[in-house]
Amino acid sequence: MLMVTLVVSGLIYVRSTPFGASLSGDRLARNERSPQWYDGEFRDPQPPWVSWRAPIAGSIFDGDTSDTSRPDQPLDIAATDTSVFDDPPAEGLRITWFGHSSLASDR
User: Fold this and answer.
1) For residue 77, what are the CA distances in angstroms to 67, 94, 95, 98?
2) pTM for this structure?
3) Considering 21, 25, 37, 107, which has the largest number of Cβ atoms within 10 A of its Cβ?
4) Are 98 and 104 in contact (CB under 8 A)?
């Protein structure tokens, strides 16, 4: 019984306004003014990329040879001055973001 109560409560909660409950009133009017609003729903201006294989490897297996599959120019690589890590931070925490999902935290 506890599990049923939790599931029902969760379903009710995710239908609340912060989670995208049905639009009405001012929210509906604001959304209808959006250029992406079409026929009662938002439409992505970019067509979805669909592959039946893994999304990361899909372009390799699907033979994607479009002009957008590679950059026109080589990407710049910024060298990191590693001497900034020689001394600990003077105060608090130092966080260095290297890109995408790589960072170093130091105190």
Assistant:
1) 22, 22, 20, 11
2) 0.33
3) 37
4) yes
CA–CA gap between residue 33 and residue 11 (Å, rounded)? 29
Tokens of 100: 């995408």
Within 10 angstroms of residue 49's Cβ, the number of other Cβ atoms is 10
Q: Name the helix (H) or strand (E) containing 104.
A: strand 102-106
- Nearest of 70, 78, 73 to residue 99 by alpha carbon: 78
Residue with tokens 């890109």: 99
In this structure, what are the phi and psi dihedrals at residue 20, rounded to the nearest 5 degrees? 95, 40
Per-residue HEC secondary structure of 22-46 comes to CCCHHHHHHHHCCCCEECCEECCCC
